[in-house]
Design a protein that fits this description.
mainly alpha, Anthrone_oxy, membrane, transmembrane helix, DUF1772 domain-containing protein
C-alpha cells in the first residue's frame, strides 16, 4: 500500500511539475509577445479553464499523496527514503501555498480589473504579469524539486533487518588518493 501511495505521489507531482514547466516555457513566453489587451484577455480565458476537476486532482493530489506517503513510510527510525519523501512534501506544500496565496488571488484581481481603455489594459497587465510570473517560477521550481525527490525515494531501496541497522550506523569509508 505504501509503495502505491508513493508512486501516486510521484505521478501526481510529476503531472503538476510538467504542467508548470510547460506553462513557463511555452504559454508564458507566448503571452509575453501579446499586446496588453490581448495579454489580459488571454490570461483571463486561461484562468477560466485551468481550474477544473482534473487539474484540482493533480494539484491537491500531489500534496495529499506525498504527505500520505511520508506518514506511511515514517518508521520510528527515519531512513533516507523517509527524508526524501518528507522534503518532497515540504516542496509540494510550498507550491500549493504559493498558488493559493499568490497566483490565485492575482488571477482574481486580473479578472475584476477595469479594462475600459488601453490605459486600463496596460495597468492591469503591469499590476499582474511580473508578480504572477515570479510566483509561478517559485511553484515550478518547488514542484520540480519535489518530483526529483520523489523519484529518488521511489528508486531508493532501504535495507531491512538487523544487518541494515548495523550498516546504517557504520562509518562511511573515506577514499584517499
Amino acid at each position: 500500500m505504501s509503495r502505491i501511495v508513493l508512486l501516486l505521489a510521484a505521478v501526481s507531482t510529476g503531472l503538476f511539475a510538467g504542467f508548470c514547466f510547460c506553462y513557463t516555457v511555452v504559454v508564458t513566453r507566448g503571452l509575453a509577445r501579446l499586446g496588453d489587451e490581448q495579454y489580459v484577455t488571454a490570461m483571463r480565458r486561461l484562468n477560466e479553464v485551468v481550474p477544473s476537476v482534473p487539474f484540482f486532482l493533480v494539484f491537491i493530489g500531489s500534496l495529499l499523496f506525498t504527505v500520505t506517503a511520508y506518514v506511511l513510510h515514517r518508521p520510528l527510525q527515519p531512513t533516507t527514503q523517509t527524508w526524501l519523501i518528507g522534503a518532497a512534501a515540504v516542496c509540494c506544500l510550498v507550491s500549493v501555498v504559493v498558488s493559493a496565496t499568490g497566483n490565485i488571488p492575482l488571477n482574481g484581481e486580473l479578472a475584476s480589473a477595469a479594462t475600459n481603455s488601453a490605459a486600463d489594459f496596460l495597468h492591469a497587465r503591469q499590476s499582474f504579469e511580473d508578480r504572477w510570473n515570479t510566483l509561478h517560477a517559485i511553484r515550478t521550481a518547488a514542484s520540480a524539486l519535489a518530483l526529483v525527490l520523489l523519484v529518488a525515494a521511489c528508486v531508493y531501496a532501504p535495507q531491512r533487518g538487523a544487518e541494515a541497522r548495523a550498516d546504517e550506523s557504520a562509518p562511511v569509508p573515506v577514499l584517499s588518493s
